[in-house]
């Protein structure tokens, strides 16, 4: 399914709150935090020239977040950054003075952090980021996971020292339970989705994602003409669409939000012209995107800055995983998890459909940008789908580079 953005807010300026969250000065603060992290490195931008030639566009660039901060997902940028910002703010209140990012590991700040508990619901990746942020500063983390989250993903979060709390039901059920328990215990919810009265912290999470697009714009020889970004509740799509709109203005690329067909809350919200909650159906293999209600903050940005919305099917997601692991001649292999390659799957589906291709003005001069939002965060599931282990794909890539 595909539709152009016809909402009343389309192409309006961003809400001043969102502009402040996603502008260049905010992104500089994120990069300043990242520069202080021992495990930080700019993630690769991979050119798929062979695939671009095959589908008839000028370029395809993939920002590979499977390498981000040791967590294997773009979410490493958001939750941890929000936790650190909240600790610094709490320290300023307790100490009665301005606290700089450089003081984060001082005894005074650590004493403040040790008295704090942060909590969130997660499909896997956001929880790892929140837990990592808490571990960095010495805070406690309580992570709520629904029944569909694999044991392997739960164990990966627990290894970061977080208390794991299982919740029966869906991701949205775990969000509600996390909010209820946190309020009862005086914990701070660090969610990547927002609801009425709860917007600022999800905004900080989105702010963390601006580092990704800032890096990519510096890495690309030219800015993209088209962007396809996958969506769960909408956080990464909104962060990228909003920052690109601010940074590039009228020259910004055409931006398409890509949903799983089985969990298309942003697509249905765009169709309705207002936030809607969709019915739970059959689970999707795109587990990190299985969300049934959009983030209100994300929708406020996307209603203005996204140009189109589309869905992809289960086979689209698994086929692109295999395609990236076994690329066309000359292209490097990319390890993409079940949700990682969904933006590229959307781009390929759009290019293959003459009506969609025309609606988005895609031609031989188009430069497409997508994000591999996760590597093999569940290695067993990855091998089951692709037929190779993540290590085997990496080794094959290394061998190809040497020949």
From TrEMBL:
Cofactor: pyridoxal 5'-phosphate
InterPro entries: DiNH2opropionate_NH3_lyase, TrpB-like_PALP, TrpB-like_PALP_sf
Keyword terms of this UniProt record: Lyase, Plasmid, Pyridoxal phosphate
One GO molecular-function entry: diaminopropionate ammonia-lyase activity
Classification via SUPFAM superfamilies: Tryptophan synthase beta subunit-like PLP-dependent enzymes
Keyword match Lyase: yes
Listed EC numbers: 4.3.1.15
Every Tryptophan synthase beta chain-like PALP domain range: 39-357
Top-rank taxon: Bacteria
Enzyme class: lyase
One of the Pfam families matching this protein, by short name: PALP
Alphabetical list of NCBIfam families matching this protein: diampropi_NH3ly, PRK08206.1
UniProt name for this protein: Diaminopropionate ammonia-lyase
